[in-house]
Amino acid sequence: MIASNGLTEADYRMFELSWITRRIVDDAMIRRVSSSEGAELIGCDRPGNYAGLAFSYIWPGETRVRDYRLRRDCPEMERKSDGSLREKRKYLCAPGGRNKLYFPCGIKPEALLDISLPIVIAEGEKKTLALYRLANWNSAESRFLPVGLSGVWNWRGTIGKEPGPDGGSRQVKGSISDMQRIEWKERTVYILFDSDKRSNTSVREAERALAGELKSRGAVVRLIDLPDLPNLDKTGADDFLAHPDGGPERLLALIDGAKMAEPGSAGEILSRAGIAELTAESGIDEVEAALRKLRREMNGADNLRETAVRNETIKHLAAIGIQAPAQLVNAALARLEQQDETRGIAFPETEPWPKQIDGSLLLDEIAALLRRFVVLPTAEIQAVTLWVVHTYAVEATSICPILVINSPEKRCGKTLLLELLFNLVFRPLPASNITASSLFRAIERYKPTVLLDEVDTFLGDNDELRGILNSGYRRSSAYVIRTVGDDFEPVIFGTFGPKAIAQIGTPPDTILDRSVLVNMRRKMSDEKTERLRYDRVSEDLLPLRRKAVRWTKDNLKRLTDCEPQVPDELNDRARDSWRPLLAIAESTGSRWAGYGRACAVKLSEGKSEISKRTLLLSDIRDIFRQTRVSRMASTEICSKLIGIEEHPWPELRDGKPITACQLARLLEPLCIRPRQMKMDMTNIRGYELDDFTDSFARYLHDSSSMNEQ
Description:
alpha/beta; 5-stranded parallel sheet; 24 helices
């Protein structure tokens, strides 16, 4: 059966195998032509078979066909240097025709000027039509605007003529006029060329040149790298979408995780920015415009490239008589991310996801990712998931609970979990050792998420560092004061912000009391996880970071105003710690609100009352209950405490058991002091049961009066 456009069922089947629907084909006004029709269409009088498919080039919002491009069924073949054959002149246009951009039908003209709508540029009509389907796949709104090139270099073309050196004229090459009709400034543009660009130098050069052209127009350019797929010589967007190992979801993930385009060499950057064209006659407005363009061109440059460009720009501006060139260039090249000049501590800003995000689905995605790589119970997975999003929403809360990642032994996955957090949280600042002064200065300057590993090797008895960690828990008191400079001027440093610490063994009581505790265990042989690819984890998790930024941005006021339902089972400190996490859970809907409350209760069980002093009170209460006496000597209490092998008293300090003096020091803050008393006609120091009554009632659960027994 042949349609009115001449297309056969075999033609439609060919398009379907490229992930292009019949409706998209019909709307695109593609038609089948005979050899004579094809030759006439492109104005070709050379012998050959010109039967094939004619693609119509129509500008969005118009109905007139501007041009045709012919895809021949039976092009000539030529032999390559390796002896194999390849098709020659498969795609043809009319001789002398200007290069044009290709658009699927149905695109509205206002989309060309809407900079909030990203653009994906591909080579070829079929790829562009497949991307058009992807842009609208399972979505009420278009995800992006697909734009097609008839060849990787065909965004350029002849734009005029100029006098030649022999007195004649020569053609002038430049970007085609269609490029001027699209708004590029501050727009995200993705370049999606075939996978053979890795081996094809010309394609790589075309990609780099196109990226430079777009950046010179103010676009934010990202490059999509398609992987090679089985049974294909090379992979294009249409091939990838239709392949069993590809598909729409995976291509969308590649688009979301596309890397920033490299800026090119220093010379190329200066040329595109127009710095070299500035002369002594250039006005300050021209200089400013060139420097602003230079700033855009530098997006993605490393420190070495930036230094080279900075020096050359300063040298050129000084040579043409510009006053204070270094000051102008430094202002223009102020880093888009906060950076420490001496150590290179950088926090690249994460672009928000372009569409609104369903919070519950975001939490689901993060939780699913964690399950892929680490072995943790469900409650711990949910707690870590909420804490990750919390790092983006610190502005909405007055409490920052410390995420404590604890394990009884090495090789339980602490460092792996920290690696995942490093690629998930807001502004991660990792360290395996840090001093107190470095910590509060880093927090004050960068407002990072601090990720500390191997804490058991350097926290120990470091009271100052522990105090800094503790102080960052509550916003109202998250400050330390230090004197700086030769004049010893008092300066306030803020310490408020999210922190995660990983260690073997239990952290100090004061930290634990301000924490959300995640207990890790070594993986068993039958517990399967995926192996983390450290070389690409940052790129793979970029979509989750962008989604977290967008969801938090859209819901910040809601989080600020939220009064979450906190379980009654939690004590006062635990209620404070979990409130910001439960606010996030409730803001995403009832399902995660339930998850949050359940894991808050489970992870707080047995944690809130395990400080050394509270444990001591509990053990002394048990001793008095068991012995049924009203007074006891200090030495006897110590003896019975030492008999509790699972508690710290047998090896309280330096492997030695608790002494009467240590017992007294632990009880002193509770206003419980040893008395002089006589027992068995001997003067001893000890304690009355009544001395403990008030503390039992205040600090222990199940604190019924001991005297009622």
